[in-house]
Amino acid sequence: xxxxxxxxxxxxxxxxxxxxxxxxxxxxxxxxxxxxxxxxxxxxxxxxxxxxxxxxxxxxxxxxxxxxxxxxxxxxxxxxxxxxxxxxxxxxxxxxxxxxxxxxxxxxxxxxxxxxxxxxxxxx
Length: 124
What we know:
alpha/beta; globular; 4 helices; Rossmann fold; 5-stranded parallel sheet; two-stranded antiparallel ribbon
């Protein structure tokens, strides 16, 4: 069982993806903003963080850096932004999310630190 922190400002995505993750046996917490994400990292101690590339008022990269100041976390970006607008050293799963690819990442959370997977550019 992987402890997953899902961070996105879209409540519908949080609900649907949270249910999908829980249905596969993962322990899931959600957050809708940077402050909630930091609190959840401190309290929940996730194995993996799934983070939107852009949250209202801040970038996903800024949130990732803030989370890493508080705990050693693995971060995977979930984003509809073109790949070249996201940090090149991070794993990015494009929205709409390929659940098979997400499942692969969940089976091997260490892959979140591997070389990024080339993604086709999609608009948000």
